[in-house]
């Protein structure tokens, strides 16, 4: 049986300002295609990024206040981004599923017959992180890598705290102590790893890794099983 790994691609990685960063999408899809060529099966969950933030903001200005409805707006954006990334992978001539699945169960099933599956969000209350960790559970993946826009997990937000301490290795309990209890933070939050997803990882013993997806060499090294700049979050 082929090894399966899951990658969460933060939506912010795909955008250069308000536009899709075609250069990043092309390079990232090639790295993932190269990894798939070694035999690894890869499940990818793409976030909403600029498109989700903009559409949620517009919805709020139009009078939408319910978190459930705002989440649905964000989910639509993630699926749009997923289709863009799926198309880039198709252009790399790899066996990527033609459908963007709407559940992690469907994505896990597609991984039985495809080398790569790309999806976006699923249901309100589940962020990209939570969806990717659930996909790792349902597909019996070896772990889940979260590619975001920070280099490490920190003990507090480094953007506002110059004395923030970063971690290269930690366990899931340490991570939960930082991100807090498994509660939904509302549509469009920006936390290092979603606490609901962390709880899923704890409940199912899923190893996580976090890295800066803008530094694509990091992603290539992680997929190749090499040392990379980032945080490894072990089960214990």
The outline comes out as globular
Strand portion: 15-25%
Average pLDDT level? 93
Order of helices and strands: EEEHEHHHEHEEEEHHEHE
- Largest sheet, if any? 7 strands, mixed
State the end-to-end CA separation: 26 Å
In terms of structural class, how would the helical and strand content be classed? alpha/beta
Report on this model:
The structure is a single chain. The chain has helices spanning 22-36, 49-61, 67-91, 104-110, 128-138, 172-179, 195-204, 216-223, and strands at 4-9, 15-16, 19-20, 41-46, 116-119, 144-148, 153-154, 166-167, 169-171, 208-212, 230-234. With 236 residues, it is an alpha/beta fold. It has a seven-stranded mixed β-sheet with strand order 5-4-1-6-10-11-9, sandwiched between helices. β2 (15-16) and β3 (19-20) form a beta hairpin. The longest helix has 25 residues, at 67-91. It starts with a strand and ends with a strand. The mean pLDDT is 93.
Concise description?
By secondary structure, this protein is of the alpha/beta class.
């Amino acid at each position: 049986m082929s090894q399966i790994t899951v990658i969460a691609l933060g939506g912010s990685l795909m955008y250069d300002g308000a536009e899709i960063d075609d250069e990043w999408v092309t390079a990232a899809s090639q790295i993932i295609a190269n990894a798939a060529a070694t035999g690894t099966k890869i499940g990818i969950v793409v976030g909403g990024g600029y498109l989700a933030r903009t559409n949620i903001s517009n919805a709020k200005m139009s009078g939408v206040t319910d978190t459930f409805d705002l989440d649905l707006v964000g989910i639509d954006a993630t699926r749009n981004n997923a289709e863009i990334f799926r198309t880039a992978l198709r252009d790399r001539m790899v066996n990527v599923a033609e459908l963007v699945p709407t559940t992690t169960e469907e994505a896990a099933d597609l991984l039985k017959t495809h080398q790569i599956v790309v999806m976006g969000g699923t249901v309100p209350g589940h962020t990209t992180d939570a969806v990717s960790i659930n996909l790792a559970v349902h597909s019996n993946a070896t772990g889940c890598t979260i590619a975001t826009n920070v280099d490490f997990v920190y003990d507090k937000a480094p953007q506002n705290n110059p004395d923030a301490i970063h971690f290269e290795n930690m366990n899931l309990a340490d991570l939960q102590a930082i991100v807090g209890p498994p509660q939904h933070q509302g549509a469009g939050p920006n936390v290092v790893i979603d606490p609901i997803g962390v709880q899923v990882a704890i409940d199912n013993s899923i190893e996580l890794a976090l890295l800066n997806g803008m530094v694509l060499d990091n992603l290539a090294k992680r997929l190749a099983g090499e040392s990379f700049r980032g945080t490894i979050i072990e089960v214990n």
